[in-house]
Amino acid sequence: METEALAQGMMWSRERAAAELGVSLRTYLIYENADTVKRSVAMATVTLSLINIMPALRSDQLSKDLLLQMLEEMTTDAAAK
Questions:
Q1: Angle between helices 64-79 and 39-58 (to 10 degrees)
Q2: What is the pLDDT of residue 54?
Q3: For residue range 30-73, what is the model confidence (pLDDT) as tens digits?
């Protein structure tokens, strides 16, 4: 699910991902194994992802097209929840 992708994409342990989301490891594992993700969790995941890519945006490491594609994928997934 999205929470697992968050941890993997940012090279975080599950413990770190849980801490970043402000939940216990047990709750994080429940989110990770759920068939659907709560909208609040999806939005938090998008927010954390955006915070993580901000340094790359500031240094022009991402092309405009790649940035737009990433934002579209993140927001489309979160909006569908």
A1: 170
A2: 82
A3: 988 888 878 888 888 888 888 888 887 787 777 878 888 877 87
CA terminus-to-terminus distance, the chain: 12
Gap between the Cα atoms of 77 and 81, Å rounded: 7
pTM of the model: 0.64
Domain ranges within the chain, ordered by starting residue:
2-79
Q: What single letter denotes the amino acid at residue 26? A: R
Please give, one letter per residue, the 3-state secondary structure of 50-66: HHHHHHHHHCCCCCHHH
Whether the CB-CB separation of 13 and 7 falls below 8 Å is answered with yes
The rounded distance, in Å, linking the Cα atoms of 22 and 66 is 29
